[in-house]
Amino acid sequence: MRTIVKLIDFPENWIPYEKRMEHDIKMLEINGKCEVLENLVTYMEDDQKDFFKLINSIIMQLQTKRGLYSGSRLSRYTKNPKILEFKSIKGHGRVFGFFSQEERSIIICTNSYWKTTSKKKKQTQAFERADYLRNIYQNTMKGKTK
């Protein structure tokens, strides 16, 4: 079965275009399913306060070049430093993604998770999932450029 990969817009009512000064932000859809969008909708329905903490953290990072590289509210995956983790400020929500510069500088959100304990197993699995999804995207883009 052929894998169909698309980038879809991050909802403007969550992050307006004027807040995306340095980088645009998209979400990865694979075979008609956007894992990160589904998770974010669930977060919004279950805990609006934490959801908006997460969105505000992403907005802060989008508005500064330095913030994305310094790691102030952002962690880097130890096995693949290209994977980014956006954390809600003193909250549970996490969104993972990576930079892509095929067209212009964009951040592509791949997946997320809701941190409930201090154990690293689920966080490591979420990073690995982001890396897996990034590889699918990269391999699909290589096929399109040939």
Structure description:
Strand 4 and strand 5 (93-100) form a beta hairpin. The radius of gyration is 15 Å and the shape is globular. The chain has 146 residues and is α+β, with helices and mostly antiparallel strands. It has a single domain (16-145), classed as YaeB-like fold. The chain has a six-stranded mixed beta sheet. It contains four helices and six strands; from the N terminus they run E-E-H-H-H-E-E-E-E-H.
Q: What are its keywords?
A:
alpha+beta; 40% helix; single chain; 6-stranded mixed beta sheet
| Coarse structural class | alpha+beta
By CATH, the topology is YaeB-like fold
The assembly state of the depicted protein chains is single chain
Within CATH, the superfamily carries the name: RelE-like
Which term fits the overall shape?
Answer: globular
Integer tally of domains: 1
Annotation field: number of helices: 4
Helix content: 25-40%
Strand percentage? 25-35%
In N-to-C order, the SSE pattern is: EEHHHEEEEH
Q: Tally of extended strands?
A: 6
Unreliable stretches (pLDDT < 50, length at least 5) are none
User: Architecture in CATH?
Assistant: 2-Layer Sandwich
Average pLDDT, rounded to a whole number, is: 81
